[in-house]
Amino acid sequence: MVVQQSSASTVWLNDSTLGAIAPGSLRRVHHVALNVKDMQASRHFYGQILGLHELMGEEVPSTLKDLVAAGKVANFVTPDGTVLDLFWEPTLFPPDPDPKQQFTRANHLAFDIAPDLFDHAVAVLGQHQVPIDHGPVSRPTGRGIYFYDPDGFLLEIRCDPV
């Protein structure tokens, strides 16, 4: 691919000599980075409500230590090693205050949970009055519930079918 940029857009041109990234080369999602308006509320939400492990001290990547120390970044990790980076953007406002109005290029972030823990997760969200978009829903691929983080980003907790 060759990139041509103009003031209006970026155009990707086909260049067959480059080939493609070999299937299976992209092993897993390494991290997801979210902009957050209220770092304290987001740290509480992801750490205390969703139960993700917040990286502290020596666990923080060296490239982010200064930003973490300044309170501008927080890092969490899921049990499978996927990192969730929160970047503090206190002046960030979505174009529409209604979280159902899509305004980013991302649609949602889904967390997987064991089927026997799904109902408990739904109850925890309710106990903390987390805004629910929809669900729980049941599909052939499993069950899911869609809800919003403190910045209105759509999240899902899902499980495989029993």
TrEMBL record:
Keywords: Metal-binding. Pfam families: Glyoxalase. GO terms for molecular function: lactoylglutathione lyase activity; metal ion binding. It comes from the Bacteria. Transmembrane segments: none annotated. InterPro entries: Glyas_Bleomycin-R_OHBP_Dase, Glyas_Fos-R_dOase_dom, Glyoxalase_1_CS, GlyoxalaseI/FosfomycinResist, VOC_core. Residues 28-160 form the VOC domain. PROSITE patterns: GLYOXALASE_I_1, VOC. CDD domains: VOC (cd06587). This is VOC family protein. The lineage of its organism: Bacteria, Bacillati, Cyanobacteriota, Cyanophyceae, Synechococcales.
